[in-house]
Amino acid sequence: MKISLFIPCYVDQLSPHIGIAMVNVLERLGHQVDYPEGQTCCGQPAFNSGYFPEAKKVADHFLDTFADADLVAVPSGSCTAMIRKFYPELYQDSPQSAEVSELSGRVFEFTELLVNQLGVTDVGAKLEGTATYHDGCHGLRELGIKDAPRRLLENVEGLSLVEMDEGQSCCGFGGTFAIKFPQISTAMTQVKLGSATQTEADYLISGDPSCLMQIGGYFSRQKSPIQCLHIAEVLDQQ
Amino acid sequence: MSQSTNPTTQFQTDANRVTADVDRRSFLRSSLRGYQKTRTATQERFLSYESARIAAGDAKWEAIENLDVYLAQFADKLESRGATVHWCSDSEEARSAILEIIKKHDAKSVIKSKCMTTEEIHLNELLEKEGFEVVESDLGEFIVQLRDEAPYHFVFPAMHLKKEEINTLFQEKLKSINTDDPEELTMVAREVLRQKYLSADIGISGANFGVAETGMISITENEGNARLTTALPKVHIALMGIEKIIPRLEDLALMLPMLATAGTGQHLTCYNSQLGGPRQDDESDGPLEMHVVLLDNHRTRLLADPEQRDALRCIRCGACLNVCPIFKNVGGHTYGTTYQGPIGSVITPHLRGLKDWKHLSHSSSLCGACSETCPVKIDLHHHLLRNRRDAAGKGQGGLAEKVLMLGFTIVMRRPWLYRLTGRLGKIGHVLTKPIHGTRIDPFYAWKKTRDLDDPAKQSFKQYWKSRK
What is the complex's ipTM, to 2 decimals? Predict the structure, then answer.
C-alpha cells in the first residue's frame, strides 16, 4: 500500500531520526512510502495560540500538499489530532469542509495506522529491557489511542512493559504553554519523572515527539538514566 | 495570595512560589490520588457511568435552554409557600438584598453553610464591615475563615492544610488542646459551632440545585451543618446562581449521586436536604422566613454564547480540579478566582472580563483530563481554546505575537522559505552559541529547566532528497 508521510516541522528539524525509523518500519512491512516534499507544518502552533485564521492558512497548504494522498501516516498523536479533529472545526461552514472531512478520514497516527488500518501488531522488533509508555494527551483523549501502542510494544522481543501511576497525566508540554508558563510545565514533568523512576524502567516510550522533547529535555537535565524513545525508533530496532 | 498586582502577574508569581514547594504539591497529589481511586470505584458501580453522564448533561441542558420558563416556575412555586424570591442581576444587587433582610431583622450574628456564590459576591467582607458576626459552619470553610483565606478548592476549601497546621491554627485561634487527631479537631470545631447555631439570627446557605417543578432548593453536604444553618435561625437566606435550576424533582435521583460521585467519590453524600419554603402553619419547626436570592452576575452573558453556554451545566462538583495537572501543581489560591481549576478558567473570562483573565485559558496544556471527567460533559478544554481564539481575535495577544504568527504563516505556506528558515536556524544556532543557556538566549524560558536538542545536521527533508 502506498503510504504518504507527514513529518511535522519540529521532527523534520530536530528529530528526523523518528521519521527515518518510521520509513524503515513501513518499508520493512512491504509498503511503498511517499513523502510529499512541499509539506511544512499542520498549523497547530498558531491554532493553539488562538490564531485560527492564521492556522487555517497553514492548513490550506497542508490540504494542497496531501490532496492526492491515499493514506497519511504521522509520527505524532498531536499533529494527527490537529488535522483530524480540529481542521473540521476550522473549516466549518467553508466551501472546503467536505474536502477536509474526507481528508481527515485518511490521516492516522503511526501506531493506530499499523494496528487499526494495516492490521499489524508484531513488526518483528527487538529491544532488551523494561519500558513504560507515556500517552500523549492529544492521541489519548482527542483520538482515543490507547491500546494500539501497547499492543505493538508487547510484541517487541525482549521488552517488558510497566505502567506508570501517572502514565496518562500530561507531561507538561502543551506547545506555547511550555514557554509561557515554564514553571508549571516543568513541575508537571517533574511529576512524570518521579512516576517513571518508580517503575524502574530503562525506557520511556511515547508516540508523540513533542512530549519526548519535554520529557527527554527534563530527564536529561536531571541526569535521569531513563532513555526516552519514540515508538517508531523502538519498532525499528532489530 | 498576593492581591496587589494585575491578575496575570499575580498568577505567574504565585505559580512560581507553589511549583517550587515540592512538599505541598506532593501532599496535594497524594490527597487527590485517594479521591481518584475512590471515585473510580464508585463510577464502576454505575451500570454505565457514561450513560449517566449523558443523562445528567441532558437534564442540565434542558434547564439551561429553557431557563426563562423554569426559573419562573421555580420562583412561583416557592412564593406560593411563603418564600420571598429576589432577582438580582449583579453582585451589588444581591449584596444589598441580603443586607436589607439582615438589617430588617435587627440581626447580630449570621451563620453560614458552604456557599461559593457568597464568595463570588464577597458577602462575608460586606457583612463584617457592617458589624455583623459571620461564622462559616462547614468545617473546611471554618478553617479557612480562621486563617482569613479564600477557599482553596470550591469543594474542599481547606485541602491544602495538613492536620498539624490545623492543630496549630486551632490552638492559636480557639485556645484548643494540642492534638492533630482529625476526629478530635472536628470535635473542637463542633463545640464552637454549636453555640453559634443557637445564637445566630440569620442562616445563609447556597443551593446545589433548584427544582423548578416543585419550587425547592436542594443542598448537598456531609456534615449536617447546612441542615442546622437552614433550620435553626428564624430567617434563612439561600443564594444561588440562576444556572442551578433543574427541571424535575426526579432529576435529583440522578444529579445527587452524580454530584457525590464526581465531587468526593461517595455514592451519595451523608445529607441531602430539599427545602421548599419557610415553616408552614401546620409545621413545628423551620425558619419563619425564607428568602431565595437568584443571582445572574453575567451568567446570562455566558448563556448568550452558543459555543460555551454548556458551561452553565456545571454542578460545581470540582472533579475537573481534582484531575487537572495545572491545579495540582499551582494550587487553588494561585488562580485568584472564586472558581478555581478548569471550570474557573473557562467561565471567569465571561464573568469578569477576557482581557484580565485570558491568561487562565493559556495556562493549560489542553490535556483534556477535565473534559474527560466532567459529569455533565462540558467541553472544558476546548472552551479554553475558544477563549484563546477570542482573545487573539481582539488583539489581546499583543503586537509581537501577532507578528510572530504572521511570520509563521508566511513561512509555512512556502516550502522554499521553510527550507531556508531551517538552514538559517542552524546558522543562527551556531552563531548564538556564546549566549546559549544565558538569560538572553531566546530559548531561555525552555532551557532554564530543560535541555534542547541541537538542530539535526540533516533534516528529514534532506534525508529524503539524499535517498532518491
Answer: 0.96
| Cell numbers 437566606: residue | B237
Distance of alpha carbon B291 from the chain centroid: 25
Q: Quote the domain boundaries for residue B193.
A: 46-297
Percent of chain B with pLDDT over 70: 99
Smallest CA–CA distance, residue B28 to chain A, in Å, is 12
Pick the CATH number of A121-235 from 2.60.40, 3.40.50, 3.30.420, 3.30.70: 3.40.50
B187 in reach of chain A (CB within 8 A): no
**Cut 0.90: pTM above it:** yes
Q: What is the pLDDT of residues B141-157, one digit of tens each?
A: 999 999 999 999 999 99
Q: Please tell me the distance in Å from A157's CA to the nearest CA on chain B.
A: 28
Neighbours of A102 (CB within 10 A): 10
Partner residue opposite B366 with nearest CB, options A54, A60, A174: A174
3-state helix, strand, coil in chain A (%, to 5): 50, 15, 35
The alpha carbon of residue B293 and the mean position of all alpha carbons in its chain are separated, in whole angstroms, by 20
- Contact between B338 and B239 under an 8 Å Cβ cutoff? The reply is no
- Neighbouring residues of B138: CB distance < 8 A, sequence distance ≥ 6: B113, B114, B157, B221, B223, B225, B226
Residue B224 has φ and ψ, to the nearest 5°, of: 80, 0
Question: Exposed, middle or buried by CB within 10 Å (0-12, 13-18, 19+), for B175?
Answer: exposed
Q: Which of B20, B408, B418 lies closest to A45 in CB terms? A: B408
